[in-house]
Specification:
By secondary structure, this protein is an alpha+beta fold. It is 47% helix and 9% strand. The termini are far apart. Residues 158-167, 212-232 have a biased composition (Basic and acidic residues).
Length: 232
C-alpha cells in the first residue's frame, strides 16, 4: 500500500513537471533555496553512467526484488514494514521510468526536476537534481541505517542494552541468589550460609532483641566475664 502511494505520487509529480516545466531551464521557487530544473537523466546521480542505462535498470529491478523478498520472509516489525514499503515505492518510481519512458525499454530516462542549489556533495560539481522517488530512497536508506544502529531487528526484537549486559557478572544475571538456595548458575559449588548457625535451637525463630534488651545482655556478659577473671 505504501509503495503504491509513493509510486503514484512520484509518477504524478513527473507528469506535472513534463507538462508545465521547460526543459533544462531554471524556474525559481524559493530564491536560491529551491527551484525546478527539468532534465531527463539517462544515468545515475550527477548523470554518471549515461552510456550504460540498462545496468541501472537491472540494479533497480534487483533492489526491488530484494526488498519484496525481505518483506515477505523476514520483516515482522511494523516500523520496518513502513520503512521498506516507502523504500520500495521510491525504487519502483525510478524503475518505471527506466522501463517505460523514452527512448525505450529498458533504457528509459529518469525524470528529475527538483533542484536545491545550496545542496552539493563534492567541490566543483553541480548540485544534484532529483525527484520524489529519490527523496524516499535516500530518506529510507537513512532510516534503515538508524534502525540497524539502534539494534531494531526486522522481526521486531531488539539488541540487549550494553548496560544490562555489564550488570550481569560471572555469578549469573544480577548475581541473583534464590532465598535459601545456591548461587544462580553454580549449583552447590557456592553453598549459601545457614542463617541459624550459632544460635541455640530453643532461641531460633525468636524476634530480634530491642536496643534496651541488647544492652542488658551485654552488661550481663560483662559481669560474667569479670567474675570469671576474679575466680581465675
Amino acid at each position: 500500500m505504501l509503495a503504491t502511494l509513493v509510486l503514484a505520487a512520484d509518477q504524478f509529480s513527473k507528469h506535472l513537471a513534463l507538462e508545465n516545466l521547460p526543459l533544462q531551464q531554471q524556474v525559481p521557487v524559493f530564491g536560491d533555496f529551491l527551484s525546478f530544473y527539468l532534465v531527463k537523466n539517462p544515468g545515475a546521480a550527477f548523470s554518471l553512467g549515461e552510456g550504460v542505462t540498462w545496468i541501472f535498470t537491472i540494479a533497480l529491478a534487483a533492489v526491488a526484488g530484494v526488498i519484496v523478498w525481505l518483506a515477505v520472509t523476514r520483516v515482522r516489525s511494523r516500523l520496518w514494514a513502513v520503512v521498506m514499503g516507502l523504500l520500495l515505492g521510491g525504487v519502483l518510481g525510478n524503475l518505471t521510468d527506466r522501463l517505460f519512458r523514452e527512448p525505450g525499454f529498458p533504457v528509459g530516462h529518469v525524470i528529475d526536476f527538483i533542484n536545491t542549489p545550496w545542496m552539493w556533495f563534492f567541490p566543483g560539481m553541480s548540485p544534484a537534481i532529483y525527484n520524489i522517488a529519490d527523496i524516499f530512497i535516500v530518506g529510507d536508506m537513512i532510516a534503515v541505517a538508524l534502525l540497524v544502529l539502534v539494534g531494531v531487528h526486522m522481526d521486531g526484537t531488539r539488541e540487549p542494552r550494553r548496560g544490562r549486559e555489564e550488570e550481569s557478572t560471572i555469578l549469573g544475571e544480577g548475581d541473583e541468589t534464590p532465598p535459601g538456595g545456591d548461587v544462580a548458575g553454580f549449583g552447590d559449588e557456592f553453598p549459601v550460609a545457614n542463617p541459624d548457625a550459632g544460635i541455640p535451637r530453643d532461641e531460633r525463630g525468636l524476634p530480634p532483641l530491642s536496643e534496651a534488651e541488647q544492652r542488658a545482655v551485654e552488661r550481663e556478659a560483662d559481669r560474667e566475664a569479670g567474675g570469671d577473671r576474679r575466680d581465675a
